[in-house]
């Protein structure tokens, strides 16, 4: 029956292993054990001070539903932010193309429902954020893996897309989770040209923009002005639990996305929109966080190197290190999941197995998040270096 078919499709959605590891780590902490958290991409810092004050000041207001697309002032500021970063200078954004959503996750659901039909083929880069693939599966859309590796600095090229066969869409992230790869302007231009020539719709994930080791990440809209771009206040703005993000939508799709938002979510949480608007004025505080991530990156690279883990992806941006660990997997016979479970149990080190990001090759990879505190990162690396399987 159709009900059974739908249930079967839903049952095919894999777990999000990073969150499963976080749950296991939390259970271990609750039992009184020390845990060093390198598993989830969650900043250790709290709500920016400007946002905290704004929320306190708004608590006596009704904070009811907003317009489905979000507070007008917030949308205006977000359009200004894109324009100020150079996005599509020849075609500047106005707030009509900004839709405020309940986190990037809601944005991806809205984008996928807007652009694709069940059965269509959408490319997802592997290694890549697993929830792209899993959300597509849940919607009955075929997620087509596009494997990339060190030969292209973990970045997709036109050749990769061509080898994937017919595609109706492509999900592209820069900086990438888990590799941290930032796509250059030339790389974005190459992929965008291929997609334009083959009628492939682009959904671009820019939620790690701002967290870059050097310089800035070129924006997708400079090369694909009709892409749907997803961003979030979770990472750079340190607001994971507030579940607030935004979409940049082509003019001809704004009304469609707005109707879907009205029916699925009504609007993003009003209090989170208040916090987000104020957070846009917290640049000095937020850039301090980015400087800390850069310092943490150095701590992790040094510590992992001392532990013999040196085969890693570029880590240009975001706050992850994606490491090839055949000395534990191939040589000893542990899967990445086995390794993560043993490190948690035996060392109190929580990290994420590569199978979350790459189902074919991820059993030999581990992702480490360095969004936390430097002493924990250093202690975790020392523990791994001294570990005897």
Write a structural description.
With 389 residues, this protein is α/β, with parallel strands linked by helices. Helix content is 40%, strand content 13%. The chain contains 13 helices and 12 strands. A 7-stranded mixed beta sheet has the order 2-8-7-6-5-3-4, sandwiched between helices. Strands 9-12-11 form a 3-stranded antiparallel beta sheet. Helix 6 links the parallel strand 3 and strand 4. The chain is globular and about 60 Å long. The model has no long low-confidence stretch (mean pLDDT 94).
Question: Which characteristics define this entry?
Answer:
389 residues; alpha/beta; seven-stranded mixed β-sheet; three-stranded antiparallel β-sheet; 13 helices
Compose a concise summary of this entry:
This protein is α/β, with parallel strands linked by helices.
Topology of helices and strands:
Layout: H1 2-11, H2 17-30, E1 36-37, H3 49-58, H4 72-84, E2 98-101, H5 103-115, E3 121-126, H6 130-138, E4 142-147, H7 158-163, E5 169-173, H8 185-197, E6 201-205, E7 228-232, E8 245-248, H9 254-264, H10 270-279, H11 283-306, E9 320-324, H12 336-347, E10 349-350, E11 352-353, E12 365-369, H13 374-385
Parallel strand pairs: 1-10, 3-4, 3-5, 5-6, 6-7
Antiparallel strand pairs: 2-8, 7-8, 9-12, 11-12
């Amino acid at each position: 029956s159709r009900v059974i078919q739908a249930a079967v499709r839903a049952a095919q959605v894999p777990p999000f292993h990073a969150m499963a590891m976080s749950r296991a780590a939390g259970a271990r902490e609750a039992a009184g054990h020390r845990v060093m958290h390198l598993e989830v991409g969650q900043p250790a810092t709290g709500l920016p001070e400007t946002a905290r004050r704004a929320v306190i000041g708004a608590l006596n207001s009704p904070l009811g539903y907003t317009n489905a697309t979000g507070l007008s002032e917030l949308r205006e500021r977000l359009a200004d932010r894109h324009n100020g970063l150079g996005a599509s200078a020849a075609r500047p954004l106005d707030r009509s193309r900004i839709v405020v959503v309940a986190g990037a996750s809601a944005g991806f659901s809205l984008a996928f429902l807007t652009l694709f039909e069940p059965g269509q083929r959408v490319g997802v880069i592997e290694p890549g954020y697993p929830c792209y693939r899993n959300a597509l599966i849940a919607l009955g859309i075929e997620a087509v893996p596009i494997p990339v590796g060190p030969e292209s600095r973990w970045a997709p090229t036109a050749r990769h897309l061509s080898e994937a066969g017919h595609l109706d869409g492509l999900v592209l992230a820069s900086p990438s989770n888990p590799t941290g790869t930032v796509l250059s302007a030339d790389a974005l231009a190459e992929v965008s040209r291929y997609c334009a020539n083959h009628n492939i719709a682009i959904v671009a994930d820019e939620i790690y923009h701002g967290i870059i080791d050097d310089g800035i990440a070129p924006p997708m809209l400079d090369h694909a002005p009709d892409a749907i771009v997803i961003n979030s206040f979770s990472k750079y703005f340190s607001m994971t639990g507030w579940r607030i993000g935004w979409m940049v939508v082509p003019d001809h799709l704004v009304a469609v996305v707005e109707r879907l938002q009205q029916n699925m979510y009504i609007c993003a949480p009003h209090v989170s929109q208040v916090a987000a608007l104020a957070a846009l004025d917290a640049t000095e505080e937020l850039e301090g966080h980015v400087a800390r991530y850069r310092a943490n990156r150095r701590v992790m690279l040094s510590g992992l190197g001392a532990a013999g883990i040196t085969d890693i992806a570029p880590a240009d941006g975001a706050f992850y290190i994606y490491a090839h660990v055949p000395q534990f997997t191939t040589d000893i016979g542990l899967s990445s999941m086995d390794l993560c479970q043993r490190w948690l149990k035996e060392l109190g080190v929580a990290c994420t197995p590569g199978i979350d990001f790459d189902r074919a090759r991820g059993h030999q990879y581990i992702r480490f998040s360095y969004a936390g505190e430097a002493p924990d990162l250093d202690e975790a690396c020392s523990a791994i270096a001294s570990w005897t399987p």
